[in-house]
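Example 3.2
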Amino acid sequence: MKYQDIISSMTIEEKAAFLSGKGEWETRNFDKLGIPSIFCSDGPHGIRKQAGAGDHLGLNASLPATCFPTAATIANSWNEELGETLGETLGEEAMAEGVNVLLGPGLNIKRSPLCGRNFEYFSEDPYLAGKMAASYVRGIQSKGVYACPKHFAVNSQELRRMAMNSVVDERTLREIYLTGFEIAVKEGKAKTIMSAYNEVNGVYANENKHLLKDILRDEWGFDGIVITDWGASNDHALGVAAGSNLEMPNPGLDSARELIAAVESGKISIEDVDARVDELLDAVITLSVKAKGRPEDFDKNAHHAVARRAATESTILLKNEDKILPLKSGAKVAIIGDFAFVPRYQGAGSSLVNPTKVETVAELAGSYDLQIVGMSRGYSRNGKEDAATKKEALDLAARADIVLFFFGLNEDSESEGMDRTHMRIPQNQIELLQELGQVNANLVGVISAGSAIEMPWHHYFKALLHCYLNGQAGAGAVLDILTGKANPSGKLSETIPRRLEDTPAYRYYPSRQRTSEYRESLYVGYRYYDTADIPVLYPFGFGLSYTSFEYSDISVNEDGVSFTIKNTGDVDGAEVAQMYVGLPNGKVFRPEKELKGFAKVFLKAGEIKTVTIPFDDKTFRYFNVKTNKWEIEDGKYQIMVGSSSANILLTGDVLKGETTEVMPYVKEELGAYYSGKIENVSDAEFEKLLGRPIPDGKWSGELSSNDAICQMYYAKSGLARLAYNILTKKKKKADESGVPDLNILFIYNMPFRAMAKMTAGAVSMEMVDGIVKLVNGHFFGGLGTIIGGFIRNSKKNKAYEAKIKG
């Protein structure tokens, strides 16, 4: 052990207490032992260090910081260098604000467009997500701050996220849901990882030895610390044994007592505790040294400029009929849409940033060479009809040559703690754009949304810009692109399907009870659409430019693929060349094609460049569930190069030999998976894929400490059902207001046990057991346990505090 001298001088009480947070964001310090405290903060796209009392939902104000575009946006840049630059600026701001661990980036796979937190995640593709995450991590950690990729792993829905079991076969787990984390760890050298709320195949992520020990530490060589998501700890002792270091945020000393009792009973060993303490000490001491002499400010204007560059590179031109964009000098335009006045530039939840400044289109448009006939909000942001505002917008549209319509998803459409129930934008926006189309055919749409949306109305527009959630400098970036000061180069990091019913997990998402069955297996996003021949509106990797590119001269060898790209237009621009790999008629089922490399290439008008995309250890591999190893199947692999998953422009092939003769599947038993038609996978076929029976996810007659509070509609106690009804009404009222109540959402989906993990020691697990008894109809027994537990917990806490202070 690295810190044997410190550990040998620590009591078991000090060791156990050290492995839990002392407050909402800080670790415990032991001054007499020379152990300082370190500070964690949210910050996937901007630092959220709260000025006053801390809370994980961002209910209290945070210090001003640069609000960069969200991960869902930046992934559309397909630019690792940009990701690293963003990471550097995030690291600088974290250091200036005294933050040692930045809780991000988020890189869970977008299994379904409905996940309410998709705006925080990079992609539906693990390779792209991993490469972008690794670039963030390198940048952040270059400034002496640790990055913390999250949420490890298979966290794909917000509904009941703390009381939900992800049921997934091992191959899909490895190839789809873990590959991004593998890249972030191996290539980014991430020093912290955040464990997820959910169970993975029946074991909570934070105590899952297969995830944390077998894969993360032993296979990938991770040598950092694992931090629980806030309130994600279930059994702290099992977490420590599995390789989890820090239980957050502030469970008090009940968890420490639980750890000591586990050592005394032999449930875990003192060696487990010492190993976790040593790893955490390494992080705490290293970070404290790096923070010495830190700057206490950052260049706000320079970081704003980085945010603007990031927004510009990440904006996608989906449509441009008649080359209506870029706008001609002096174009006579009407600016319509509430988002032009009050932009939607970030998501809701724990990632909410207090920006240093926010640009708006309404304020900036006058500084561009445009003739603006007027501006109107056009629609009400809360979704209600506003006849007067609509009439004003229509009158303006009739007087303009071109209408710039700013629209998209409202704040209540996407948030941590809740999933979407559909993919539509508010109806009042759709109705307005339809009426605008009747008075002016030259409609240019500018979309703000953190995830894929249905676009049955897209034909109304001559041009469409998808901005995603583009940060505090997004307005300037949009105006630069609209007027031709910048050439769009973003490409979709997720597919935009025609409708929700076309999505691969439509029948399996979200989970109806406690289990979320990943029956679609590998067929996520374009892997499904391309293999099953499902038409989409805009494919993965798609994006237009104001110039054009020509691909030629492909050459494939054992090391990679080379080809030539020429900018055949008359303006400078950037193209994202994408390499996909497939194995037709393979013995192991697989998608038609999978992204295995990409390169963003900047070319002046008329310029030609040779591009090389190397093969790596992930290019040809698949995970063999029989050998329990990564293997390569023999055959002639297709190497496909194109501008999107649906526009393959060059092809070649390469022969590969097999690494094993052991085949993992019997084709006849897995017909849906070999065809890619996974819309209705039977129980029998899913069980064949899993290699075990499907677990029963139904709630039993009585609730447990691991059931969510929203499940109190099952409660036998009338008092508990009353509490559930009151909470549900409050949630519904907040939803209808257009502004989700994050506190209610968190409580609604929180399991009872979390009360003992997030109340600074005020509630013990014994008291939680009493609450559960009460909910299950044992009123007096439950009340007695709660009262007795409160008294015992208070006495034990005081005695423990005396031991670790003395």
